[in-house]
Structures are given as C-alpha cells and as structure tokens.
Predict the structure.
Amino acid sequence: MASGSPRPASGAGLFKSPKDVWSGVMFIAIGALGLWIGRDYPMGSPVRLGTGVFPRLLCWGLIVIGAIVLVQGFIVKGEPVGKWAWRPIILVSIAATLFALLIEPAGLVVSMIVLMGIGALAGDDHTIKEWSIFSAIMVVISVAMFIWGLGMPIKVFPWS
Amino acid sequence: MELNHLFENLSLGFSVALTFQNLFWCLAGAIIGTAIGVLPGVGPVATMALLLPVTYYLPPEGALIMLAGIYYGAQYGGSTTAILVNLPGESSSVVTCLDGYQMARQGRAGAALAIAAIGSFFAGCVATLLIAVAAPPLTLLAQQFGPADYCSLMVLGLVTAVVMAHGSVIKAIGMIFLGLLLGIVGTDVNTGNLRYDFGIGILFDGINFVPIAMGVFGINEIMANLTNPERRDLVSAKVTGLMPTRKDLTDATPAILRGTVIGSLLGVLPGGGAVLASFASYSIEKRIAKDPSRFGKGAIEGVAGPESANNAAAQTSFIPMLTLGIPSNAVMAMMVGGMMIHGIIPGPQVMTERPGLFWGMIVSMWVGNLMLIFFNLPLVGMWVKMLTVPYRLMSIAILFFCCIGVYTLNNSADEVLLITFFGVVGYIFVKLDCEAAPMLLGFILGPMMETYLRRAMLLSRGDAMVFLERPLSLSFLIAAAVLLAIIALPSIRKTREVAFVE
C-alpha cells in the first residue's frame, strides 16, 4: 500500500480520484491479507463462536468497502494524492528507531541527543546555536522530570 | 429521590475533587490543555496520548481528572489563538476566527477573549450539571442491556460517529473496520488462540492503545506539519480592556444561551463533539440575526455562541462514555484508554462500583472551568508569548515526548518501534483522506464488540435472530440503518457538505 506513488495527474486518465483508488486498494489488500493469515483460525459453532468468526466478518467487510471505494475512485472525480513529505517521514522514522535502539544500552542523554539531532534535520532552518541551547534545556528538564521526579528506571549516561 | 441523590452525589464529588492532590491535577490538566489549545498543530488527542503513560504513575482519580482538564482546557486555549492570531488553535475554534479576529483588529480583543471565556464557563457549568442529572438514569438503563443490546448499541454508536464526521462516509466505515480488526490483534481471550501476531512478542497481548494513538495522532502530525509551514500574524501582543461593555454582554447573552443548548445536545451524539457544535451554533446565530451582514466583521454573537457551544459539547460528550462505556469521539477514546491503564473497565458499573471516581471527575470539570476563567485571561500575555516558539523546535520536543512516553509505559523499546510504524501508517491515511479518529473508536470497541457478540450468541443458543428479536437491540439497529440510508441520499449529502464548508 505504501507504493501509492505520487501521481501528478489530477482527475484525468483512468483514476478519476487517485485518493479513493488507493484507499480502496489499501482496504482490499488489508482485508485479503487478514483472510489469508487467518485462514486456519477455527470458526467454532454458532453457540460458541470460534477465533475466526469476527476477523472473517471484518476482513470481508473491509474487502466490500474497499471495492466500493475503488469503484468510486474510477467514477467520481477527486483530488490527487499529492506530494509525499519523504524527508520528514524518513528522518522522523530513523530518529525514533535509533531512540528505541539506544535508550537501553546508551541511556537517556545520548539517545535524546541523537533523536533530537536527526529530528531537527527533518525540519527546515534550524541553527546550530538555537538547536544546542534548546536541546540542552530539554535534556536537563527531562532528566529532572523523568529520572529524579518520576523515578523512571532509565540510565542517564551509557556508563551509569 | 432525584434531588437528594443529586446533592449526595455532588458532595461526594466535591470531597474527591477538592482534595489538594486532585485540585493540583485538575489545574495541571487545565493549564496543559490551555497551552496546547493555544498552540496550533498540537491537539488534545495527541497531548492526551502523550500524557497517558504519565498518568500511569498517578492515582486513577488524579489521572482522569487531569485528562479531562486537558480537553476542556484546550477549548479555552483554542479561542485565544483564534482571536489574536486568526489561526484556530483547536479545530473547534475555526469559526471563532471569523468574528473574533475581526474584533481584535478593531481593538476589541479583550472583549472577545472575555466573552469567549464567560460563555465557555457558563456552558461548562450547565453541561456539568446536565451530566450529573443525566448520568444516573442512563446508567440504570444501561444496566438493563443484554449482550445483544450492547452489540447493537455499539453498531449504532459507530454509525453515528461516521455520519457526524466530515469527509467520506464509506471511507470512515472502512477505517472503523480496520480499527476493529487492529483491536483484536493478539491473544483471543475466549479461546487463548493468537491472532495476527506475526510472531512478534509485543503483539501477543494485543496492540497497546498508547503507541497506536501516539503514532497516528502525534508522530504523524509532526511529519505532516513539518511540510506545511504556517504563518502566524499576531494582532498585537498587548491586550487591553478585558471587560466587555454592557452592550457586549446584552448582545452576547442570548447567543451564549443558545450555544449552550446546541452544544449540550450535539455533544451527547457520537461523533458530534466540540467541532460540530461550534459550526452549528455559528450558522444558527447568523441565520437568526437581524442583520446577518455583521457576521464576519466582528459580531460578538459569532464569538459567544460557538465558544459556548464547543465547551458545552466537550463536557456532554463525556455522557455516553461515562454511562455506557462507549467513546463517542477520539478524545473520549483517550479517556477510555486512561481508564484501562488503571484497570477500570468503562461502562455503567463505573458509577456504582467507583462512585468517588465518577462523581469526583464530574465535579472536577466544574472546578476546572472555574479555575480556567480566573487564570486564563490574566495569562493571555504568556500564552501569546508561547506562540512565538517556532514549530521546528516544538516538533522535536513532541517527538521526544512521544518516544519517551511510549518507552516508559512498559519499559519496552519495541513499543517505540510500533509508534514509528503507526506514524508512517497515519501519514498514509492523511494522504489518502482516511480519517484516523473512526479507526481509534473501532480499535477501542473491537474487543468489547466481539465479547458481546459471543455472549449474545451463547445466550441465544446460536440463534443470530436475537439481535432482531430483542426490542432494544432491534431499535438500535433500525436507527443505525436509517442513519446510513439518510446519509446515502444525495440531497442530504449535499447539505451536509455545505454545512461543513460554511
């Protein structure tokens, strides 16, 4: 579903409403995937509904809704998907992922600086000076609040 | 019984809400709420998601009182930005920009702010009283519901939420289904079977509410906001003449009364809430005004009505959540999340089993409103200063708070990866115009709905007709079907679009 590449065409061509077409594709894909993964979930009996009943209901629902949205996307004119903000998406994701990987081995201070550093690259017009002051304040506040104040069991420094 | 009980309940509530600790959490929630209400781009849903992990460290009363404070505090704060900067701090303040900003440009910012606060306070008082009066009988009624009735009621609730929301109805239904599906990930409580766990450890117990909410409402907003730089045109940092004139008051009073009624009614409906209420109030004020052309040029009714309506609706939207356990919008879903963190299952039993919590929270809303009217206006200068913090700095602070918040919930780094995933997914939803709020409602209701479905089938010995045979269940389903049919009619769809564009 993530392959919904930006299409400059708006309303013209086969996809009258690209947003609807891709939404429909997304719903159908998730429903189909859910059915396939859940193909062995037992159905049980009407009195004792099994594990598989509710998921199947929902997945078929998703497929039907997806189909309606998809058809609508071919008929009714709508908006193009628009540009993807690749830089924030990728950098914010990297920043959060690194934070997850670093918080336990490297402690709060290091993981915070990495997170806020990469996070800053996602936005425009940061200056080093402003960023440094702001990050320093944030680090002090967080250590005071989370570790001293709330007593959360997180390391402060890699060596502590 | 009624009046005596009401006093008894309220005094119990006061005894809980007025403890030093709870007063503090109420104030904290109200201030945080006002602050994020003032800031465009940070909404109450994201903030409540951010603070959910922190509430884990508080007693349940303090936690819920603070979370509630964030919501109504945001209604107050949103109007400040709308009036002074012509930007809606909150989506419920969009219409306040129209006349509020014009009043500010005419040098009447003080009067506009004061009227917004007075209207909000009045509406908040009425709505709180309404909750106190309406909750007990509704709770009694809800206790009569069988599993089939509950299941159908949830269907009705979800359908109403879709109908009231803006945007495509069919996509919103799709998002609800998606939410329901996400809600049942993990171990099936009835059979112990694992579902959709992908062999990932943290999914065995189901997806946690906090990472999904933070990802879709917090991380995703950072990604989206960083690409749309905003403009902020401050009228003037100095606000003088806070006191409205006598004429202002006489003009505004009927609008405040009407706004309160409209807001209180719309707040109770699923999916209604503050945004819809403020829009409805504005269009009604404009329609019944003797001289509609004044609107958009600084008519005080255009501030007083919507601001009263959005606060009233913010309060009364607690009614279905408190009495039936059914969240009617994303904010109430957060409240349910806050309850579940403390092991409280929302529903009619909350009032009978934890009366202190229930009434304490209701009374705290009134206390919080009272506090807001006192410190909100004097602090306007500080709020305005806060608007000068650039979003590029706020975004990294929010990003950090999201990550650390989710981490501390279970001391699990894997959950941080989960918010990253839901952040990206949430961004895709925004790009495709698929709203995340219905998904969140579905997510909360998914496990409950399945449980009630199974229980209903068990009780009826496998006869699905039970949903049509029980009168309550049948009427809920008919109401849901009628709503869907109405929304499918083209003529109504058109007026609905107009109503949201206006």
